[in-house]
């Protein structure tokens, strides 16, 4: 995987200039902004992606993952809930929601999500269960 985040931001910005309704370009630029720790920029891009395609489970999951970084666990969990509502097989949303819920003390529901993610072959969920669900 290349880590030319600034180049990716430039490329995705050009794609957005060509077609401002390109939700994938906003989501991809959000990923690149995460890579340079521009969390507010990433959240903005994921939000724009969601405005264009409100059924993008990946955009909700990605925005939730970024919201966890400044410890906005409530906002993150809302995004993970929406991602799961759209795509009940989204293993990343279960994993991320499980971590966020465990961190804020909702261990029972968090461990339930981590167990579900582990059952969907998410290896990190297995390790998170060891950490949070003893």
What does this structure look like?
- The chain is mainly α.
- The chain has 2 domains: 1-54, Serine Threonine Protein Phosphatase 5, Tetratricopeptide repeat (Alpha Horseshoe), CATH 1.25.40.10; 58-134, Tetratricopeptide repeat domain (Serine Threonine Protein Phosphatase 5, Tetratricopeptide repeat), CATH 1.25.40.
- Helix content is 77%, strand content 0%.
- The longest helix is centred in the N-terminal third of the chain and has 14 residues, at 5-18.
- It is elongated and about 50 Å long.
- The model has no long low-confidence stretch (mean pLDDT 97).
Question: What is the fold's blueprint, element by element?
Answer:
Layout (H helix, E strand, L loop, with lengths): L4 H14 L4 H13 L3 H14 L4 H12 L4 H14 L4 H13 L3 H13 L3 H10 L2
Annotation keywords:
134 residues; mainly alpha; Serine Threonine Protein Phosphatase 5, Tetratricopeptide repeat; 2 domains; 8 helices; elongated
Helix content: over 70%
Give the helix/strand class: mainly alpha
CATH architecture of the largest domain: Alpha Horseshoe
Q: Biggest β-sheet, characterized? A: none
- Sum up the overall morphology in one term: elongated
Strand content: under 5%
Query: How many β-strands, per DSSP?
Result: 0
Which CATH first-tier class of the largest domain would you pick? Answer: Mainly Alpha
The count of helical stretches stands at 8
Q: First CA to last CA: what distance?
A: 35 Å
Oligomer: single chain
Average pLDDT, all residues: 97
């Amino acid at each position: 995987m290349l880590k030319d985040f600034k180049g990716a931001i430039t490329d995705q910005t050009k794609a957005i200039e060509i077609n401002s309704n390109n939700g994938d370009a906003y989501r991809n630029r959000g990923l690149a902004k995460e890579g340079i720790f521009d969390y507010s920029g990433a959240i903005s891009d994921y939000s724009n992606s969601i405005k264009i395609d409100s059924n993008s489970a990946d955009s909700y999951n990605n925005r939730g993952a970024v919201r966890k970084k400044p410890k906005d666990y409530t906002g993150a969990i809302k995004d993970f809930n929406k991602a799961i509502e759209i795509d009940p097989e989204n293993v990343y949303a279960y994993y991320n929601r499980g971590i966020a819920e465990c961190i804020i003390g909702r261990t029972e529901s968090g461990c339930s999500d981590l167990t579900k993610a582990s059952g969907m072959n998410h290896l990190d969920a297995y390790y998170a269960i060891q950490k949070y669900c003893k």
